[in-house]
Amino acid sequence: MKSRISYLTAAILLIGFGSLSAQNQKIGFYESDLILEKIPEYQGIQQQLELLSSQWKEQVTKLEQEIKELEEDYEAKEILYTEEIRKQRQQEITQKKQEKERFLAQKFGPEGEYFSTQRELLEPIQRQVYTAVRAVAEEQNFDFVFDRSGDIYMVYANNEYNLNDDILLELGIELESQ
User: Fold this and answer.
1) Burial class of residue 167 in the structure, from the number of CB atoms within 10 Å of its CB (0-12 exposed, 13-18 middle, 19+ buried)
2) 3-state SS, residue 147
3) Can you name the residues that pair with 146 across neighbouring β-strands?
4) Residue 89: which of 67, 74, 72 has the closest Cα?
5) What is the pLDDT of residue 177?
6) What's the CA gap between 135 and 167, in Å, rounded?
7) Average pLDDT, stretch 151-166?
8) Average pLDDT, stretch 4-12?
9) Helix, strand, coil: what percent of the chain each, to 5?
10) Rounded mean pLDDT, 99-105
11) Do residues 169 and 32 lie in contact, with contact meaning Cβ atoms separated by under 8 Å?
12) What is the mean pLDDT of residues 91-102?
């Protein structure tokens, strides 16, 4: 929400100041999602992350199955257990659930292995794209360039200022004839 407010504030300031020098400003946009999809290394990284993720999901499924079996066994034998054994079995189930939650947090949490691996693998490509965007913007004298793939929304954008093809060329990626 804060980022939308800051973007809105920036837009209002640009509009306000834009009236002073609107004829001199050149604004461009690109779509980082589209750019990344065209980079061959990105596809490999996505496959690596999907493989890693699927392996961890299998482990989560195994833990969930173990929990289910413990719960079913407990329910089937609960009336046969002494109070002490009931507490032990409940504790086993609770520990297994906690183990699953810890595993999920360790692998998929905000500071988990998945996101740190993703950050580590994608950072060089993102830096490369940023460098290409900056080079294109400087070569073509743009005052502003926006990424439409994220939280920034544009209601209207003249395709004349679409920089996707130029950025792909800057990255050395051949364009398919359309």
Assistant:
1) buried
2) strand
3) 29
4) 74
5) 67
6) 9
7) 70
8) 48
9) 75, 5, 20
10) 97
11) no
12) 97
What is residue 9's predicted lDDT score, i.e. its pLDDT?
A: 47
Residue 34, burial from CB neighbour count under 10 angstroms (0-12, 13-18, 19+): middle
Nearest residue to 36 via CA among 175, 168, 176, 169: 168
Report the alpha-carbon angle 125-131-134, nearest 5: 140
For range 99-120, the mean pLDDT: 95
Average pLDDT of every residue of the chain: 84
The whole-number pLDDT of residue 155 equals 39
Considering only residues 56 and 20, tell me which one the structure prediction assigns the higher pLDDT. Answer: 56
Rg (CA), the chain: 26
By CB neighbour count within 10 A (0-12 exposed, 13-18 middle, 19+ buried), where does 29 fall? buried
Q: Are 160 and 167 in contact (CB under 8 A)?
A: no
**What token pair was written down for 154?**
């544009």
Strands (E), the chain: 27-30, 144-147
Whole-Å CA distances, 113 to 21, 41, 46, 52, 149 = 48, 20, 15, 10, 25
pTM: 0.65
For the chain, how long is the longest CA-to-CA vector?
85
| Structural contact between residues 154 and 11, judged by C-beta atoms closer than 8 angstroms | no
State how far the Cα of 8 lies from the Cα of 151, in Å rounded to an integer: 11
